[in-house]
Amino acid sequence: MENFKHYSKLLNIRKTRFVGHEVSEIDATILKIFNENNEEVNSLMGKGFIIFDQTPFYAMGGGQDSDKGFLIFNEIKFDLEEVRKDLIYGFYIHQINTNNCELKVGDQLHLKIDQKYRDCSSINHSAMHITWQTTLNEVGHYVEELGSKLNNEKYQIQFVVDETITEELILTVVDKINKQIIPQDIKVNIFQVTQQEAIEKNYLLEFTKLVGDEMVRMVEFPGIVIEPCSGTHAKRTKELGNIWFLIYDKNSKRILLELTANEQYAAKFFNEKLVDRFSEIKAFIKKGLSYGINYDFLKILTRCEHLIKIWNPLSIKEINLIYNDVTMLVNKFLKEREAEMTKNLASEVLPFEIINNKFKLFSLSGEMYSNKILLPKVTQEASVEKNLVIVITNKHQNGANAIIIRNKELNIDLKELSTNIIMPKTTFRGGGTSSMIQLTSQSPEDIETIKEILLSE
Ligand SMILES: [Zn+2]
């Protein structure tokens, strides 16, 4: 799209009439077509760019993403991929893919916005204005904004680093907006002023004067915020419903805030950050308990149950700290338990079966011996038994483990045995070398299958 800048002035057409603030669909005529390489053409089949005489699609700008929507020609429908505005000449350049349909200059198409996408974007956009101004009011002094970005899902505001903009302050801001501003159901006021008037009234700074447009479009939620803005907005504050604070990220250069007025998106976001994290914590606790950890986890679980209902960055932070504490605690316990089990198993004489004069099979059950614990034992056995392949298996409630090892002097390819015979007949997965294989399985019954395999080998 960048390439259009070079010859926009040569196009010799009037700027595109934007009707997207008034209507959501319209018939429009093709004035210019460009192919994928940005070359002007008279017809298009496939990917390319189109300029119409008018459009309902909001073009990417002012931090707001481009509208989504579709175009219809002779009952054939294509998606709008993106629309951009040439800021100097005012052309709206529509990126589309017509697939097998041919479009020509002069053709008339029906253009229609994706209303749900537009509504979600408009609501987030309005919430962004209100959040920005309420933050400044709460801070009590001017803080430079480094930029803002939004789409249908969420909005982002970046400020230069200022010590007063903390997570707690933003929580207060969000609370004020949700409890005091949105319920007032303030009606948006949109009007035009001349650039000169905008500068005089401090709506616009001298250096931000726009080229081309003489009039400035102002957006006002009376009593709350007034700003020059060409974007799309909610009609009343009640449309916002509620806003949620998603992310607070501070580095040496900027503070980035991410929020949303889209409840579906908020639910998805916090489910991932809180509920999924809680599941991981529970899984870790379960693992610790199954190995016999003696710890009262009740307080932690109760706290987590409480936290997953609080949708903000502080609850995310706290649940992550809990996750770190729990994993550290359980891992430390598991490591000690593992060392103890390895020591005990090494000194134990295990019952075994000799199969086909070729295999020495040790079957354990009940304890969750990992391969890591079994390995020292099986290595010890293999160093003594020069003529037998050592197979040590462990059947436990969640599956099974197996290690197969042979003495260096024995000439049998275990990798072949595991890849060609054991794995196809069982759910065992794993790998190793021709002299040592480590396997794990989801199914405890696989141990019986391994025994059958050894009998027929
Ligand atoms: Zn706006």
From TrEMBL:
<keyword id="KW-0820">tRNA-binding</keyword>
<keyword id="KW-0436">Ligase</keyword>
<dbReference type="InterPro" id="IPR018164">
    <property type="entry name" value="Ala-tRNA-synth_IIc_N"/>
</dbReference>
<dbReference type="InterPro" id="IPR018165">
    <property type="entry name" value="Ala-tRNA-synth_IIc_core"/>
</dbReference>
<dbReference type="Pfam" id="PF01411">
    <property type="entry name" value="tRNA-synt_2c"/>
</dbReference>
<keyword id="KW-0030">Aminoacyl-tRNA synthetase</keyword>
<dbReference type="GO" id="GO:0000049">
    <property type="term" value="F:tRNA binding"/>
</dbReference>
<comment type="similarity">
    <text>Belongs to the class-II aminoacyl-tRNA synthetase family.</text>
</comment>
<dbReference type="GO" id="GO:0002161">
    <property type="term" value="F:aminoacyl-tRNA deacylase activity"/>
</dbReference>
<dbReference type="InterPro" id="IPR018163">
    <property type="entry name" value="Thr/Ala-tRNA-synth_IIc_edit"/>
</dbReference>
<dbReference type="GO" id="GO:0004813">
    <property type="term" value="F:alanine-tRNA ligase activity"/>
</dbReference>
<keyword id="KW-0694">RNA-binding</keyword>
<keyword id="KW-0067">ATP-binding</keyword>
<dbReference type="InterPro" id="IPR009000">
    <property type="entry name" value="Transl_B-barrel_sf"/>
</dbReference>
<feature type="domain" description="Alanyl-transfer RNA synthetases family profile">
    <location>
        <begin position="1"/>
        <end position="241"/>
    </location>
</feature>
<dbReference type="InterPro" id="IPR050058">
    <property type="entry name" value="Ala-tRNA_ligase"/>
</dbReference>
<keyword id="KW-0547">Nucleotide-binding</keyword>
<keyword id="KW-0648">Protein biosynthesis</keyword>
<dbReference type="GO" id="GO:0005524">
    <property type="term" value="F:ATP binding"/>
</dbReference>
<dbReference type="GO" id="GO:0006419">
    <property type="term" value="P:alanyl-tRNA aminoacylation"/>
</dbReference>
<protein>
    <recommendedName>
        <fullName>Alanyl-transfer RNA synthetases family profile domain-containing protein</fullName>
    </recommendedName>
</protein>
